[in-house]
Amino acid sequence: MQNIYDARQKVKIVFLLVSMLLVGIFLYISNQLVADLSVEERNKMEIWAEATREVASNDTDMDMGLILKIIQSNTSIPVIVADEQDSIRQILNLKIPEKSPDIYLRKKLEEFKSGSNKIEIYIDEHTRQYLYYDDSILLKRLSYFPYIQLAVMLLFILIAYLALMSSKKAEQNKVWVGLSKETAHQLGTPISSLLAWLDLLELNGVDKDLLNDMGKDVKRLSVIAERFSKIGSKPEMKFMYINEVLVNATDYMRRRISNKVQLMTHLPEEPIGGMYCLPLLEWVIENLCKNAIDAMDGEGSIDVSLQADKDKCYIDVRDTGKGIPRKRFKTVFNPGYTTKKRGWGLGLTLVKRIIEEYHEGRIYVKESEPGKGTTFRIELKRS
């Protein structure tokens, strides 16, 4: 069966790539705007410097009114004009404090000199001055704009992505719950019929040993139907010992696997208890064991072990199967992921949901190596 999760992953990747492309385009346009304004301010200051040179030379034939108008037109760009000895000759658009104005201007001059905004003014053959300027308030604000725009767009993309994933997850949950309830409902009718047939066969004198074996299978079907009926509704939690849960689940699996598979259980002497749902927890262990058998192609060993500390218990299910690549450690729990030719790829998804949503625990791939095997770990609260 083709992995339908990979198709959804491709859609996510395309969405993110298109979003990043749009972000890149907007950032390029914004940065280009800031660069163009910076060049415009540079041109404006060169004209201003030329007007200043004309005023200082005292031999200009140009219209003095026009020159003064050019000088006075600068109302936003901070300017300091200094001579070759760094003596300040002119300042413009700087808010000079009343306290220690000389110190302030000296610091500002050093600050402007450390930047790249510098224009030489040739007054005559022997005299030159230097015009230092800072970016205008407008240009500074615009220089922050691309980063603000980036943050806003990334936030928008994140919200859109989370909303998309949330709606998909909600839709998937509805499908899951509906499918589970319908499966339980559909199983109910033939199970009731089989129970009636067993009673009838017993009245007709059929071998009781044969009827007992049939009764076990019908009871098993009832357990499966009960498990499906609990999906989507809050299961009833009861205090029980996890040791017994593991024994029951592994004993059931042991009777139904070939002699080529060794299923071993390692339990501590101390009983470890907590609030659990017995049918669902047994389902988890059985699912992990079935996956392990499939991964080993029906031949190998499975170790189910239990450990505990003060607050939690840890269940490890280790097999000697094909192993899982590290990049697939999280993907294996997604709906539709399967390496088998048959199957829906829902087993581990159900396991994850039972452990994390219903029991508030954790399940993850503890370790795996291709060709050597995999260990799944379940963490549950104990009480």
TrEMBL record:
Its EC number is 2.7.13.3. It comes from the Bacteria. PROSITE patterns: HIS_KIN. Residues 182-383 form the Histidine kinase domain. It is an enzyme of class 2 (transferase). GO terms for molecular function: ATP binding; protein histidine kinase activity. One of its GO terms (biological process) is phosphorelay signal transduction system. The chain crosses the membrane at residues 12-29, 144-164. It catalyses: ATP + protein L-histidine = ADP + protein N-phospho-L-histidine. It holds the Pfam family HATPase_c. Keywords: ATP-binding, Kinase, Membrane, Nucleotide-binding, Phosphoprotein, Transferase, Transmembrane, Transmembrane helix, Two-component regulatory system. This is histidine kinase. It comes from Coprobacter fastidiosus NSB1 = JCM 33896.
